[in-house]
From TrEMBL:
Belongs to the class-I pyridoxal-phosphate-dependent aminotransferase family. It comes from Longilinea arvoryzae. This is Valine-pyruvate aminotransferase apoenzyme. Homodimer. PANTHER family: AMINOTRANSFERASE, KYNURENINE_ALPHA-AMINOADIPATE AMINOTRANSFERASE, MITOCHONDRIAL.
Amino acid sequence: MQTPWDHRYAQRTQRMKGSAIRELLKVTEMPDVISFGGGMPAPDVFPIEEFREACDKVLRNQGKQALQYGPTDGYLPLREMIAAYSARFGIEVTPENILITSGSQQALDLIGKIFINRGDRILVECPTYLGALQAWNAYGAEYVTVQSNENGMVLDQLESSMRSGPKFIYSLPNFQNPTGVTYSLECRQKLVEVADRYGVPIVEDDPYGQLRFEGENLPSIVNLDNKLRAQNGTYTGNVIYLSTFSKTLSPGIRLAWVIAPTEVIHKMVMAKQGTDLQTPTFTQIIAYEIIKNGFLDKHIQTIQNVYRERRDIMLEELQKNMPAGVQWTHPQGGLFLWVTLPEYMDSNVILKDAIAEKVAFVPGDCFFPNGGGQNTMRLNFSNAKPEKIREGIQRLGRVIQKYVK
Ligand code: PMP
């Protein structure tokens, strides 16, 4: 239908594209489709009882505050708690360094809003998180890409890409979305060292870091950067760090946080006021109420156990059902693994067939900002129950088999 708005759209809308994943979510709502598509946590482990109790308690004791507007930077006790939590991982900050956002997705958008001019180059891994590209495309970002392998960014390429003068580096060091890859210690150190040498700051997006179910935790980028710059490791501000409660408590509450220099927080606060005034007071107080007595530590262990089992089953079924020439990553945490098909295959074509067989995944090309990746796919292992994972990978194996030359 023609509307009076048709020729009035801003130029920035020309580069806006619906997320392939969000489109896919519609298909996967069909009851008998087994979906490895969305990045959805296991609903089986949502702490529903804890939410019910906290809602009741908060409404009884703090109802007037919880239903009222609150400050843009967030509920102070929650920010204090995040500061204390961060200190456990060697990130020494005060609540003034913390902004509560409506999901990390909003933090990415605010970063775009305050830093990206049309034509600015952002250095990203290839493939990288689609939601960041979606957020930054609207601000006219261009991308300099560095390929990644099983250890993270390909280090030789990192140095040459820095010469193109990126505005900042976007890095996903833990169980990356979409590949499930974790940066090695060497990759982390080199990234920090090269960024320092070229004077380029880093955005570290870490929604999955707490969900390691195998291997040793590695220091975060912000940590290594602080060590490089300040003798005592206190926060120096070269790295903006993002994390979220989406994967540890619930994505439906839309609660995440940014750690940044206070000056950057001030700019983000102004940008956020124009967006949504504040993150809902209600969900912030509820989350605080649930977490304040240490609930998250034991809950994260439960999540880790469930995800480890699901990942193992997916790996086992891939091994049994994928034809020769298909490869996949072995994530040590997080929600995703990444499949690389023989080069002549196109995962967008395969997806149509797969949906007919009632199994879904995300074709990998959407994670490549400058094209490529047609023979790749992202599989989510956190959402489906074990028996569904088995059945789904068997279906997928049969579909892919048909394309073998
Ligand atoms: N960054 C990355 C890398 C993600 O995978 C996600 C979730 N899919 C987000 C940010 C956004 O998370 P949320 O808005 O739910 O906090």
